[in-house]
Amino acid sequence: MGLSAEQLNQLPGGYLCFSEEGTLVQINQTLLDQLGYETSEVLGQSIEKLLPIASRIFYQTHVYPLLKLQGKAEEIFLSFQMKTGQSLPVLLTAATIRQDGRLLHQCLCLTVRQRQQYDDQILEAKRIAEQALRENRDLIKAKQELEHHQLLLDQQLAEVRQKNQELWQLGRLITHDLQEPLRKITLLADALQQEVNGNLVLDAGRLFERIVEASQRMRALIRRMQDYLLLEVTQHPTHSVHLDALILQAKELVSQQLATTNIQLVTQGLPAIDGDRGQLLELFFQLIDNSVRYRRQPSLGPVEVTITGQLVESNRFRATPGKYHYQPFVQITYTDNGPGLSPALVDKVFQIHKKAGPGLLGLGFGLAICKKIVDNHRGTISINPTSQPGTQFIILLPVQRTHLSNVE
Question: 20 to 30 A Cα–Cα from 65, which one of 28, 159, 199, 293?
């Protein structure tokens, strides 16, 4: 049997008891008087409420691990925080017991009245730390400037790699993909001219149709290439963008353009981020548009799109191995119920004029535009190759667009 509440209140020192989760379940009047609290103000609260920051860290890294591993902690010196905000230094001894099927941690606390030596040690340590900081401020400043330049260099390297890849893809488009419809137009025009000169004009209408088709394809390719290149030169000011509302707008635009209401959209956990609203709207428009266009068996039911988000920490360095500078990102997971992608195409579908498979509609620019927009926001986009059936995109976007000129 433990001590009664009356007996605990008569102890000359403080007593408290908290659960495995850190919730205070009992405290005696002696400790309450020393701290200046009423019982109702502390019971049911976390023990960390009574600890200043330094003691809270010491409790988390030393006291609690000792109780977990050894079931006791002896002669621990720390401070409680009084209701007035002042510190109350105590010598604490704790032990773990099991009661009513749960673990409880009991603590006895003796106030340390002769605290001048302790205060002097703290002040001396603070003086030494401040002196060391003053003496090393030039080193700290140089380190900050070096990190700034490393981040700037990493950004430039990433942009150079991206530009080189884009130039290679655009070069292939100009030298091959645009030449194909032009070659068809030339051959068909020659055939038409020969038939006219030979008075054989029975298939002239069909030849004209094929010339028009090739011309329209070339025009469409040029227009999509222009859309892609405009993402390089047309960037709007950064604003806070609420992704939930923006994605809903993108879904409505797809429904209007494709004249369909057969889209079921579910979103969850999407925060607001800093970004170019117009480009981010285009990003989700292209993704949803792809999901609808490449749904090969619409008779199976509606197009189902699920978009979820969670906050993560990600490395800001993208091109420099072994360098790390973490900042908050939102990880967006986009999943549809389409036919999915062949594993052989996972690393290629983000290239310019690269379609997800032969015979599919479109010109192969949608996912290239998505990647360009994500790159413009200093993020990444990839495909989860194990998501079958359906396609799953993993997008990382910075929550805040930090400018290098403001790096500290």
Answer: 28
Q: Could you tell me if 308 and 276 are in contact, meaning their C-beta atoms sit under 8 angstroms apart? A: no
End-to-end CA distance of the chain: 59
Q: What is the DSSP string of 116-164?
A: HHHHHHHHHHHHHHHHHHHHTHHHHHHHHHHHHHHHHHHHHHHHHHHHH
Name which of 138, 313, 400, 145 is nearest 153 in CA terms.
Answer: 145
User: In this structure, are strands 263-268 and 303-315 parallel, antiparallel, or unpaired?
Assistant: parallel
Q: What are phi and psi of 11, to 5 degrees?
A: -65, 145
Percent of the chain at pLDDT above 70?
Answer: 67
Can you tell me which residue has the tokens 């800001």? 316
Position of tokens 């990433």? 158
Q: Where are the domains of the chain?
A: 5-132, 238-406
Q: Which single residue is written with the structure tokens 């000011």?
A: 237
CATH of domain 238-406: 3.30.565.10
- pLDDT tens, position by position, 234-286: 666 788 999 999 999 999 999 998 888 889 999 999 999 999 999 999 999 99
- Name which residue leads in pLDDT, 66 or 293: 66
Cα distances (Å, whole numbers) of residue 16 to 5, 65, 71, 275, 383: 11, 18, 16, 50, 54
pLDDT of residue 185: 65
- When mean pLDDT is compared over 147-156, 303-312, 355-364, the highest value belongs to 303-312
* pLDDT of 127: 84
Burial class (CB in 10 A: 0-12, 13-18, 19+), 225: buried
For the chain, the C-alpha Rg in angstroms (whole number) is 34
- Cα dihedral 288, 290, 293, 297 sign: negative
CA distance readout (Å), 345 to 283, 349, 351, 373: 20, 6, 10, 20
Contact 407, 141 (CB under 8 A): no
Largest CA distance in the chain: 121
Rounded CA gap, 93 and 157, in Å? Answer: 57
What amino acid occupies position 334?
Answer: Y
| Tokens, residue 213 | 């088709």
**281-306 pLDDT tens trace:** 999 999 999 888 877 665 667 899 99
Q: Which fold has domain 5-132?
A: Beta-Lactamase (3.30.450)
